[in-house]
Structures are given as structure tokens and as C-alpha cells.
Design brief:
By secondary structure, this protein is an alpha+beta fold. The chain has helices at 3-20, 26-37, 44-54, 60-72, 116-128, 144-151, and strands at 76-79, 84-87, 98-103, 109-113, 140-141. Bound molecules: zinc ion (2 copies). Residues 77, 88, 90, 96, 98, 111 line the site of one zinc ion.
């Protein structure tokens, strides 16, 4: 993402937190900035490494607390299959159903919001008497750039 776009997202997060009376501390904002700057999903461990460049005293709980807060506010998503985090591009719709396309080569994650996948899963669940509490759809494969690279 371009620097200006990142700044724009961060301003939006600040405004939403003000409205919600949520405490977006400078440290939490910094973690959000670090996630926004990544081209691919990033693990908590790698985030800690990056944060330590500006805050050498940062410890794992610092990162986990910041991630919990950002998840709660809907600013980021956890990618379960790779245990990593990405920025959400739909801040203003706090609850949405997303499908994450994950590139196995470069780690890029593309988020698509869709309601239909939820309906399909619920229909299947109803048919078998299952009750869904949480669903994750994370197809793995290759992004367009990586398909082109592999073709050569
Ligand atoms: Zn999202
Ligand atoms: Zn890729």
C-alpha cells in the first residue's frame, strides 16, 4: 500500500476509536501501521521484531494486547491457517464475512467480502443439524504475480 493510503487508513481508525470511546494508544497505532505496511500477512513474532526497532523494550504481551485490541475493533484479521495478521480494508463495516485468498509463494492475502459463502455454509449446516459458531474460508494458491513468475 502507498504511504498516503496507509495514513488515510490510520486516520480512519483513529476517528472510529474516538467515536467508540476505544483507546487507540500510540503503541497500538504503531502496530496497526506496521501491519498496514506489509505486502503479506505478518506473524506476531515478526511484528514484535519490527516494533522493537522503535520500542526496544516491547515484549510479547505488548504485541498480543495490541493485536487483541485491533481485532476487536475490526481493523485487522487473523489468518488462521498461517497464524498471521492482515489489515482489513473494510473498517466501516465492522462485521463482514470474508474469504481470504492466500498466496503460498509470496504470502500475499487478498480479502473478499461475501455474504453468499455464509449462506451456503449455513444451508449445509442446517441439513446436517450442525450449528456453526465461527467459519473460516482461506483458500491457498498462487496470486496473479506469482502465477506469471512461475510461467517463466
Ligand atoms: Zn475485513
Ligand atoms: Zn504471490
Amino acid at each position: 500500500m502507498k504511504e498516503a493510503m496507509i495514513e488515510n487508513q490510520l486516520r480512519q481508525a483513529e476517528e472510529l476509536c474516538k467515536k467508540r470511546n476505544a483507546r487507540l494508544t500510540p503503541q497500538r497505532l504503531e502496530v496497526l501501521r506496521l501491519i498496514a505496511q506489509q505486502k503479506s500477512a505478518i506473524s506476531a513474532y515478526n511484528l514484535l521484531d519490527l516494533l522493537r526497532q522503535t520500542e526496544p523494550q516491547a515484549k510479547p504481551p505488548t504485541i498480543y494486547r495490541a493485536l487483541d485490541f485491533l481485532l476487536e475493533q475490526g481493523f485487522i484479521h487473523r489468518i488462521e491457517s498461517t497464524n498471521s495478521f492482515v489489515l482489513c480494508h473494510h473498517f466501516s463495516t465492522p462485521s463482514h464475512n470474508s474469504v481470504f485468498f492466500i498466496c503460498n509463494r509470496c504470502g500475499r492475502v487478498q480479502e473478499y467480502t461475501t455474504e453468499s459463502i455464509k449462506h451456503i455454509l449455513h444451508r449445509m449446516a442446517i441439513a446436517s443439524g450442525f450449528s456453526i459458531t465461527h467459519n473460516i474460508v482461506e483458500p491457498h494458491g498462487l496470486c496473479l504475480t506469482c502465477i506469471k513468475v512461475q510461467a517463466y
